[in-house]
Prior knowledge:
It contains six helices and six strands, in the order βαβαβααβββαα. The protein is α/β, with parallel strands linked by helices. It has a single domain (2-178), classed as Maf protein. Inosinic acid (IMP) binds next to β3 and α3.
Amino acid sequence: MFKLVTHNIKKYEEIKKIIPSLEMVELEYPEIQADTLEEVVEFSLNYLGEKIGGNIIIDDSGLFIEALNGFPGVYSAYVFKTIGNKGILRLMEGIKNRRAYFKTVIGVRVDGYNYKLVGICHGEIAMSERGTNGFGYDPIFVPEGYDRTFAEMSTDEKNRISHRGKATRKLAAFISRIA
Ligand code: IMP
C-alpha cells in the first residue's frame, strides 16, 4: 500500500485520476534548497521515511522558463507565493522567447529504497492569465500544440499531456511491476 504525502489536494486529484487506489496523507514536510528537483525529492523521501515510514510517494514540480535561465525552477513554490502569475508575466514583459517547461519528479520510497520518475511538458508562457481550472501556474502555461492554457482544460485533458500525467503513468507501471 502506497500513500501520497502532500498538502496539495489538487495534485492528489490529478494523480488519483490515473491511480484511483492511491491514498493521501495530508502533511507538510520541509523542502531543502537545492539545484535540482531530484535532490529535493531525495532529501524529502529520506526525511519522510524516518518520520512516518512505510511506502511513500511524493511529487515535486517546477516551472522552468528558458528566457529566465530556468527561473523559477526549484524556487517555483516560493515565487508563486510571493510574486505569483502576475509577477511572472511582468518579468516576461517585452521578452519574445516565451518557451518554458514544467517538470515533475515523483519520488517513491519502497522498503527503504528511493526511486524517481520524471515527466516533462514543454510549452509557452501566455501573454495573460486565462482559465480557472487547475492550480498554480496553470493559467499562464500553454502546452505545445495547443492554444489554451492548462487552466482552460479539464483535469483529464491536462493529465493526457502534462508533466504530472507522464510521471504518474510511469508510477502506475512501476507499482504494477513491484506489486
Ligand atoms: P511543489 O511541487 O508543490 O513544490 O510546486 C511548486 C510550485 O509549482 C507551486 O507553487 C505549485 O502551485 C506549482 N505547480 C506545481 N505543479 C503545477 C502544475 O501542474 N501546474 C501549475 N502549477 C504547478
